[in-house]
Write a sequence for this structure.
């Protein structure tokens, strides 16, 4: 390799390293702050959901009403259509949640920006389908897109246990 080619490779290496650095610094500063804000907002929504679920309202609210379909990761959008996401009854929500459970990979592992393990993080819900009461726990993992810096729900962990009523 000639001296000129070596200098060109070194200059190109510095340019690529500088480009990577100029992308990672804003990602760390902007995107991770947005992911943290999104997680904190999700925790606040979970507290509001728990309070509304305990109230004796005529219209039942489901946890999926607090999750924006557009903010779901692609794996969930492939598994669940928008019409499925508009479930209105306990049985429809249970079917929706089962689809999400099947689409979730590694449910025991959580990212840094997760509602799992937070004091008010996990949301609890009860559904009654065909005389069986289902206790459901929801946790969200939030990540930020590397290019747009927008937060999204990378993993939606749902735990479903059945209890006879």
């Amino acid at each position: 390799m000639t001296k000129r080619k070596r200098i060109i490779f070194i200059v190109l290496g510095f340019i690529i390293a500088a480009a990577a650095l100029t992308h990672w610094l804003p990602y760390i500063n902007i995107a991770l702050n947005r992911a943290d804000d999104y997680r904190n907002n999700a925790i606040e929504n979970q507290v509001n959901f728990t309070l509304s679920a305990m109230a004796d309202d005529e219209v039942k609210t489901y946890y999926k009403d607090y999750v924006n379909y557009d903010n779901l990761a692609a794996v969930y959008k492939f598994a669940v259509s928008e019409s499925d996401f508009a479930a209105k009854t306990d049985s429809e929500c249970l079917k929706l949640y089962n689809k999400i459970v099947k689409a979730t990979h590694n449910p025991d592992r959580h990212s840094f920006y997760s509602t799992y393990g937070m004091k008010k993080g996990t949301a609890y819900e009860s559904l009654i389908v065909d005389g069986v009461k289902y206790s459901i726990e929801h946790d969200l993992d939030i990540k930020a897109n590397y290019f747009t810096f927008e937060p999204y729900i990378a993993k939606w962990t749902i735990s479903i246990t059945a209890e006879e009523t």
Q: What stands out?
A: The chain has a mean pLDDT of 81.
